[in-house]
Amino acid sequence: MGRSIAGELLENGHEVLLIDKAPTAISVERVPLAEWLLADACEITSLDEAALQRCHVVIAATGDDKVNLVVSLLAKTEYGVPRVVARVNNPKNEWLFNESWGVDVAVSTPRLMSALVEEAVSVGDLVRLLRFSHGDANLVELTLPPESAVTGTQVGDVSWPEDTSLVTIIRGTRVLTPNPEETLEAGDELLFVAAQAREEQLEDLLSVRREDAAG
Predict the structure, then answer these.
(1) β-pairing, 83-88 with 57-60?
(2) Same fold, 1-108 and 122-206
């Protein structure tokens, strides 16, 4: 997973350092543009050698939740890394991956896979894709049903809940910037960053027409 993430980041013009304590995992030929360090990322001396304080982002992507938490905590508290992303392997441990452990963004592979399945089969239901630790906010998605109260309405005319921001509209193969004049259409996939406390209110707003709900 680490090598795959590194490859994509390098393609987007980022500088990447990969740290692994297993010699067999060091595959320079597979990601030749990355820096490599054979070390234990849970050790302060290793992170000193990596000069972690110069990093803008640290990604803890091992298959061990304990390791990912330790790396996240050290990156945030000892080196002041601005953004820490951590992989959650066991959903039962998800509650630990928060700002107390230095985690800015927790990515739960099992939860993300189930969310993508839900997103593929659900219309009108709010699907949580990603949790951001800071501010108790989530990245959520809803596919707009034809009977929604906001279908046919311009973005700027919708009274969105507080602590909610429409980030993107996906319409077919197009990715649209949600400007105020954009008209919402049935089948649009709407991506929001929303406070968890506002999710139910957001789903109520988008899923069913008011007269249908009253009936």
Answers:
(1) parallel
(2) no
- The answer for residues whose C-beta is within 8 angstroms of residue 134's C-beta and 6 or more apart is 99, 104
* Tokens of residue 100, six digits: 């107390």
**Other C-beta atoms within 10 Å of 174: how many?**
7
CATH superfamily of 122-206: Regulator of K+ conductance, C-terminal domain (3.30.70.1450)
The structural architecture, per CATH, of the domain 1-108 is: 3-Layer(aba) Sandwich (3.40)
User: Tell me, what DSSP letter sits at residue 207?
Assistant: H
DSSP 40: -
| Helix, strand, or coil (residue 169) | strand
Predicted structure pTM score: 0.59
Note the pLDDT tens digit of each residue in 100-146. 999 998 888 666 655 555 555 456 678 877 777 665 788 888 889 88
Task: Provide the 8-state DSSP code for 36.
Answer: E
CB 104 within 8 A of CB 83: yes
